[in-house]
TrEMBL record:
<dbReference type="GO" id="GO:0000155">
    <property type="term" value="F:phosphorelay sensor kinase activity"/>
</dbReference>
<dbReference type="Pfam" id="PF00072">
    <property type="entry name" value="Response_reg"/>
</dbReference>
<keyword id="KW-0175">Coiled coil</keyword>
<dbReference type="InterPro" id="IPR011006">
    <property type="entry name" value="CheY-like_superfamily"/>
</dbReference>
<feature type="domain" description="Response regulatory">
    <location>
        <begin position="3"/>
        <end position="119"/>
    </location>
</feature>
<feature type="domain" description="Response regulatory">
    <location>
        <begin position="483"/>
        <end position="599"/>
    </location>
</feature>
<feature type="modified residue" description="4-aspartylphosphate">
    <location>
        <position position="346"/>
    </location>
</feature>
<dbReference type="InterPro" id="IPR003661">
    <property type="entry name" value="HisK_dim/P_dom"/>
</dbReference>
<feature type="domain" description="Response regulatory">
    <location>
        <begin position="301"/>
        <end position="409"/>
    </location>
</feature>
<protein>
    <recommendedName>
        <fullName>histidine kinase</fullName>
        <ecNumber>2.7.13.3</ecNumber>
    </recommendedName>
</protein>
<dbReference type="Pfam" id="PF00512">
    <property type="entry name" value="HisKA"/>
</dbReference>
<keyword id="KW-0597">Phosphoprotein</keyword>
<feature type="modified residue" description="4-aspartylphosphate">
    <location>
        <position position="52"/>
    </location>
</feature>
<feature type="coiled-coil region">
    <location>
        <begin position="424"/>
        <end position="462"/>
    </location>
</feature>
<dbReference type="InterPro" id="IPR036097">
    <property type="entry name" value="HisK_dim/P_sf"/>
</dbReference>
<dbReference type="InterPro" id="IPR001789">
    <property type="entry name" value="Sig_transdc_resp-reg_receiver"/>
</dbReference>
<feature type="modified residue" description="4-aspartylphosphate">
    <location>
        <position position="532"/>
    </location>
</feature>
Amino acid sequence: MTRILLVEDNETNRDMLRRRLERKGFDVVVAIDGAEGVAKAQTERPDIVLMDLNLPVLDGWEATRQIKANPQTQKTPVIALTANAIVGDREKALAAGCDEYDTKPVDFTRLLGKIDTLLQPSEVPLPKPLDPVPDVPGQAIAWTRLRHDLEQPIYTIVGYSDMLLDALVDQQNSAFASDLQKIHLSGLQLLKLIQAILNPALLEVQQQDWTADLLAPALRRELLTPLSTIMGYCELLLEESLSDLLPDLEQIHTSAQDLLSLVNNLDSLMARYLESSEERDRFDPLNFPRKQRKAIDPSIENSRVLVIAHAGSPVYRQLERQGYSVKIATTVELGLASSFDLIVLDSQTNLNVLEQLKSHEAWQHTPVLMIAAPDEMAQISQAIALGATDYLTKPFPTALLRAKVAACLEQTQMRHQLAHYEGIVEEFREYKRLEADLNQQLEALQVELEQIKRSHQATEIVQTDYFRQISSNAEPIELKPLKVLLVEDNDLNCDMLCRRLQRHGYEVVIATDGAEGVSKALSEQPQVILMDISLPVMDGWEATQHLKANAETRHIPIIALTAHAMTGDREKALASGCDDYDTKPIELPRLLSKIEDCLKSSTSK
């Protein structure tokens, strides 16, 4: 059986791709960061490696370089999994030693073809010269980062819906598959929209300085319609899904909610990314003062470093000259009498020293930087597997040593900060759990109170002489379902909302533009109207004004359905005569509550 090593830190993407590969008969081993990937490439001996590039601990480029530098793993083919949005990823991946690359979201058939090609024995082609990675302007980097953040939940939606469609091929459930196909196609539509609008090359050609307040509303407006479709159909399927499909559907729904949160906060996201990119553009390393360099982070400059090496090691002097507090020792016992922020370990010393460090509770989280000769890569791989943080090969420039040491020390600082914030987060979660419990109790009390009120009202009505008289003489009355007029031009959203309202006992009449909505309100006389605002022929505002100006329809309550993106929609809707409004994507329980409130208000008048 062919063994594949999948190195991916995103849990949902990892789960989805692992399960699809296993269905095709592959034995899949997983790693969640670059260092673990390097270690498992040596211990598990996979036939091929699928390497994500944006990884923690050790990124995909460095992990690939280490795999290709090790004689035991250098012949293992590596396919880089890279986001299409990241400029220069392809060149960096091939330069690092990757044999092939593929873009996310993964086209599974295409990926299987590349795996099959690399597993076939063939002559190793001579490497082609790579184009230099261009210098990317700051604004393009900001849009690339935003695009990457938005694409992550979409990859999950597309991947899991594709996987579910694949699983339903042999099942006789065409209606379920049809709705799932709509989710999949809407996910692909979202991806195309994001890749088209946030295309750095296109933005550069347009030569326009796109600010957050200009681009955010336009992007949000485009994304909300397909996102509404995904969330609506997903909730529809969750209500009728088979139990074995529920976890994957819930994964799609959670990712859609995550994406909605990002879309609703586009303004602040864009502003933050633009601000960081402007700081990058202002920074000029050629003019960066030499004195200022020492003041970057005093906590790092004053850190204590232990060098475990032979007596003549030059690393001690190099670090001392750079301002670090350094101690040198030839054995771990001599060195660990006091605490240190970083340990530099010469690979000529026994790897047992590293094992001792990582097995000791007080030192297992202290970063370890390995120093090695070019022919000692096998030992370096073992060291990374044992828990070493990073490595340097001799000879190395002093600037590179300084950068590596600073990176290791920053990692220590981040770990301390993370521990502090985790405590705060856990406390916040506890407050949220208590709040949820209290809200649940409050909702239960409200339901109980409402039932008591209705019971009292029913008792009072039954006891009246009028009720006794009509109940003894009147014939049974057949209750007809309440009629809702839905005015919506998007076919998928119209179909989804219509079916969900019908499940709750409403009769639904549909109109696809504002003019047809006015006409059907006159002919059908519905009890309530759901009016989309962005409509063809006649928009929702004008249609509402016509209905409220007509004596035959002015009594019908109208709920405007308005996208969250449209600033001022609420005010315009109410000013045009709407009785209430709701935002897209539709949250059905909230909408049903507003329909009931409008019906009660209409009856009381």
